[in-house]
Amino acid sequence: MPFDPTLLAQARHVVVFTGAGVSAESGIATFRDKLTGLWEHFDPAQLASAEGFRADPPLVWGWYQMRRAGIAQATPNPAHLAIAALTARVPKLTLVTQNVDDLHERAGSPDVLHLHGRLDAFRCLDCARPADGPVALPEDALQGRRIEPPRCTRCAGPLRPGVVWFGEMLPEQTLERAFDAAQQCDVLLSVGTSGVVQPAASIPRLALAAGATVVHVNPQPASEGHAREFALAGKAGEVLPQLMRQAFT
Ligand code: BV8
Ligand code: ZN
């Protein structure tokens, strides 16, 4: 049975849970996409870890600077814009993202819960002191090369991106708010995620167990076939605007 869009229009509280797929149509590579260049022989889980960074700071810092340059050049796509528009159409919307880019914010979404931190925040690897000011982005960062990370002005440790690496705890408050929202919402839209990385990936299941309707938006949607679980197969930048039209016009 297909998902009934009026369920979205009648929802009191909607959670939108996004992964790398929501930024794919903005040209941002997802974690499923093969790494290229200097990083082609690496698994993201190795690079996105404290061990990976300590093993070769310029390699990992260069990877994040390249991603940062890509994000700076990208613009929000119709999926980000549809999610921002949905905020004004329902009484309460909680946006939870696994992404470290700022495309939801740039699309106009307020109060984005970043479970895995943000790429545009930097702190010292050793003493955790936040960077004193803006961190330079070298002109040629997008080409992809090793770049020496800047040093902490207090202890001379290397700066690191403010993202949650594999093996690191998620920000407690943010995770708590996301779990609460999942357990209180009527509808949860799971957009562009492969549902692999824990504990974030447990959020749709939490919502289902608490009685919500869950809709997966993904070209290859994975659904456990629960009675209140639906799949809208396709690209988020096409499916979400269509869902908005069906639900609100
Ligand atoms: C922790 C920030 C505990 C960094 C990221 C064994 C079993 C179970 C768990 C584990 C295990 N071993 C280790 C763990 C824990 C580990 C984990 O889950 N590992 C996985 C690999 C098994 N988790 C952790 O380490 C977490 N911390 O558990 O700490 C702890 C306990 C005690 C004490 C200390 C610690 C931390 C995890 C956070 C890692 N950081 N990101 C960075 O960005 O560089 S995760 C990163 O990968 C992303 O943030 C994201 O979450 C994940 C990728 O997932 P997706 O977003 O889903 O993206 P993906 O590419 O996978 O999929 C894209 C999807 O989009 C696809 O489905 C595709 O079909 C779809 N798509 C494509 N195009 C479109 C589209 N959809 C719509 N429209 C389109 N156009
Ligand atoms: Zn320091």
From TrEMBL:
<feature type="binding site">
    <location>
        <position position="64"/>
    </location>
    <ligand>
        <name>substrate</name>
    </ligand>
</feature>
<dbReference type="InterPro" id="IPR050134">
    <property type="entry name" value="NAD-dep_sirtuin_deacylases"/>
</dbReference>
<dbReference type="Pfam" id="PF02146">
    <property type="entry name" value="SIR2"/>
</dbReference>
<feature type="binding site">
    <location>
        <begin position="192"/>
        <end position="194"/>
    </location>
    <ligand>
        <name>NAD(+)</name>
    </ligand>
</feature>
<feature type="binding site">
    <location>
        <position position="152"/>
    </location>
    <ligand>
        <name>Zn(2+)</name>
    </ligand>
</feature>
<dbReference type="InterPro" id="IPR029035">
    <property type="entry name" value="DHS-like_NAD/FAD-binding_dom"/>
</dbReference>
<feature type="binding site">
    <location>
        <position position="155"/>
    </location>
    <ligand>
        <name>Zn(2+)</name>
    </ligand>
</feature>
<dbReference type="InterPro" id="IPR003000">
    <property type="entry name" value="Sirtuin"/>
</dbReference>
<feature type="active site" description="Proton acceptor">
    <location>
        <position position="116"/>
    </location>
</feature>
<keyword id="KW-0963">Cytoplasm</keyword>
<feature type="binding site">
    <location>
        <begin position="98"/>
        <end position="101"/>
    </location>
    <ligand>
        <name>NAD(+)</name>
    </ligand>
</feature>
<feature type="domain" description="Deacetylase sirtuin-type">
    <location>
        <begin position="1"/>
        <end position="249"/>
    </location>
</feature>
<feature type="binding site">
    <location>
        <position position="127"/>
    </location>
    <ligand>
        <name>Zn(2+)</name>
    </ligand>
</feature>
<keyword id="KW-0808">Transferase</keyword>
<feature type="binding site">
    <location>
        <begin position="218"/>
        <end position="220"/>
    </location>
    <ligand>
        <name>NAD(+)</name>
    </ligand>
</feature>
<feature type="binding site">
    <location>
        <position position="124"/>
    </location>
    <ligand>
        <name>Zn(2+)</name>
    </ligand>
</feature>
<dbReference type="InterPro" id="IPR027546">
    <property type="entry name" value="Sirtuin_class_III"/>
</dbReference>
<protein>
    <recommendedName>
        <fullName>NAD-dependent protein deacylase</fullName>
        <ecNumber>2.3.1.286</ecNumber>
    </recommendedName>
</protein>
<feature type="binding site">
    <location>
        <position position="67"/>
    </location>
    <ligand>
        <name>substrate</name>
    </ligand>
</feature>
<keyword id="KW-0479">Metal-binding</keyword>
<comment type="function">
    <text>NAD-dependent lysine deacetylase and desuccinylase that specifically removes acetyl and succinyl groups on target proteins. Modulates the activities of several proteins which are inactive in their acylated form.</text>
</comment>
<dbReference type="InterPro" id="IPR026591">
    <property type="entry name" value="Sirtuin_cat_small_dom_sf"/>
</dbReference>
<keyword id="KW-0520">NAD</keyword>
<dbReference type="InterPro" id="IPR026590">
    <property type="entry name" value="Ssirtuin_cat_dom"/>
</dbReference>
<comment type="similarity">
    <text>Belongs to the sirtuin family. Class III subfamily.</text>
</comment>
<feature type="binding site">
    <location>
        <position position="236"/>
    </location>
    <ligand>
        <name>NAD(+)</name>
    </ligand>
</feature>
<keyword id="KW-0862">Zinc</keyword>
